Amino acid sequence: MRVLIAILLLLLQTMGVASDRPNIVFMLSDDQAWNGLSVAMHPNVSGSKEADFHTPNLEKLASQGMRFSAGYAPASVCSPTRISLMTGKSPAALHWTKAAPPETGHKLMEPRNIRSIPANETTIGELLRKAGYATAHYGKWHIGGGGPEQHGFDESDGDTGNENAYQFKDPNPVDIFGMADRAAAFMEKNAKVKKPFFIQLSWNALHASENANQATLTKYERQLKGENRKRITTAAITEDLDTGVGRIMEAIDQLGLFETTYVIYMADNGAGGGKKVLAGGKGGVWEGGIRVPFIVRGPGVKPNSWCHTRVVGYDLFPTFCEFAGIAPGKMPKGIEGGSIASLLKTAGLGEVKRPREELVFHFPHYQGDAPHSAIFVGDLKLLHFYEDNRDELYDLSKDIGERDDLAAQRPAETKKLRERLDKYLAEVDAQFPSPNPNFDPHQPVEPKERGGKNKPGKSTTN
């Protein structure tokens, strides 16, 4: 009897703690530039927003929460970011650094990636479910392994890829509103039984931008008359996505969960800087490929606040664990992120405590550029290129556009950062490109087919 009473008391305590824990709604957009919203992502950079696009709900989210001016996706392409977010580890450590198939005919041969999340990786879904959360993943999964329900999620749309973006059109462009409705139903169901929930909405947008609602397309055809078709459709699908974000925010409000729910919004990778603000784009670790919109609203977060501390997507794994009351010792080994919860409580002031001071982005592939890596320490960023063993150094506090290479002027710092980059990559057993014995510099490289990017029926890349 005493044992039974003890078990009942433990269960009651667990239920009480669980009901006091905040809900978490994490929204991940696809291929969205840092300055691709109508809300600025830096208070002192005039080009940090897209004046011709209309995202009023994200403007509202930013006014209610904190904007991270230096928020980064773990990778400059899709699947590596997604597996990193799920595991709290960097793509380099996971051996998944590119989404598209390797390109051939270059001076170097790309390393082969894993193509599915391993069964032995512990996901954030598994940890939160074990801690008493209801868990759901809607939208684009794109990391295999049997889909979200094999990796800690109670509900999902299955083992999906880019194909989902193309089959949904007006009045439900790329399933934006369908996903919002399913998420709202999941929130309502769990709110009724006072169970905390974690929902990840991996939006298909901005893929298949031509599937935007016709009314939105017509608006931008008039507004952006004379501009290229891609910019018009991107503007339209961006606004449709913002409408979906608004439906999520409205559902949270109607259920009376505003005060107890964290809402996080970021992109899976950059899409170029637009208007020459940031260098590079998707498939490269220049700022345009990895710096992304990053907004957080929730309990204790000062409205309309800014944080200029550098944060990265895999910081969310330990952050969500801290929200849920999961002790650091309960997290799996090899977590590379650090919780940003303290930044949210201190109006954005402070630093993120990670196992390592430096942040590293590793892309040993051809796509937006030749194989290269980047390391950040403070405001300094070093880029290393593997074809010619070249280093470039930038001070992002003065040169966010990476236009003034300081490597020749500051050789000691360049050398030190390169050594730290090499040390990190060795410690995580990162993969590298290797010499191509059949390389012919006189033979032009055939452009690689990018299936899945804007082609119906394709789902294996990006």
From TrEMBL:
Signal peptide: 1-18
Protein name, entry field: Sulfatase
SUPFAM superfamilies: Alkaline phosphatase-like
Family: Belongs to the sulfatase family.
InterPro entries found in the cross-reference section: Alkaline_phosphatase_core_sf, Sulfatase, Sulfatase_CS, Sulfatase_N
Required cofactor(s): Ca(2+)
Biased composition (Basic and acidic residues): 443-452
